[in-house]
Amino acid sequence: MENAWRGVETQYIAASMKLVDTLQEQAVLEQLLEGSKPAAPPHEAGMHYLLLSPFRYFPQHSSRFRPAGRSGLWYGSSTLAGACSEIAYWRMRFIQDSAGLVNHGELLTELTFYQASVRGRAINLMAAPWADLSPLWKHSADYSATHQLAEAAMAASIDWIQYESVRAPSCALAVALTAQALFADHAALEQSRQEWICKATRDQVMMISKRGDERFEWCE
Asked: What is the distance, to the nearest Å, from the Cα of residue 217 to the centroid of all Cα atoms in its chain?
């Protein structure tokens, strides 16, 4: 999948600037924060940090192709709208599942969208014979089949899986099972970056690009 879109929460140096009084303290704090992150594998150390970040952590919640507690995976979308849909769904889910936010909560966050290509040996769940089992791959809550598939794919040295978005039907998504399936030089990735603002409540998610020329809205 060429030029797949991924959205992540923006990390600003400005956030840590609030905690220090001098530039020297800021530099030390940034070094401490970076040192607290899990190290990237040596053979992947030259890759852009946005490509590596998902694989450095072990989230305690599961995703469609990853059981809880396992190394993260890189999820991307063939369209920007598809990437927005995935972000919006999980923002809304977070509010609905948080006792302190469910009644009156809203989240205002800044997002970064960027593009990278996903290449290598792949399984396409949108094509035969895999498409015949689409109810298994697209189940809204039961990820057991996709977890088993991803585990078998990794054992067979499959690099990535293409599948249909549940949140944006007909939109193709990609999950990179290894960072080595991702390709984007630093300059191209930086050029593709877009900054967005996202406001999420339990019923609605609104997004707008900082350039003001693109908008996205999600409701359940």
From this structure: 18
User: Cα(70)–Cα(63) distance, rounded to whole angstroms?
Assistant: 10
Contact 196, 210 (CB under 8 A): yes
Beta strand 122-124 pairing with 160-164 = parallel
Q: With 80 as the cut, is the pLDDT of residue 176 above it?
A: yes
- Helix or strand run (H / E) with residue 172: strand 172-176
CB neighbour list of residue 92: distance below 8 Å, 6 or more residues apart: 200, 201, 202, 203, 204, 205, 218, 220
pTM over cut 0.70 = yes
Q: Hey, where are the domains in the chain?
A: 4-10+49-219
Question: Where does the pLDDT of residue 21 fall: very low under 50, low under 70, confident under 90, or very high at 90 and above?
Answer: low
The maximal CA–CA distance of the chain, rounded, in angstroms, is: 61
Helices (H), the chain: 13-17, 23-35, 49-52, 80-97, 134-137, 144-155, 186-192
User: What is the distance of C-alpha 35 from the center of its chain?
Assistant: 22
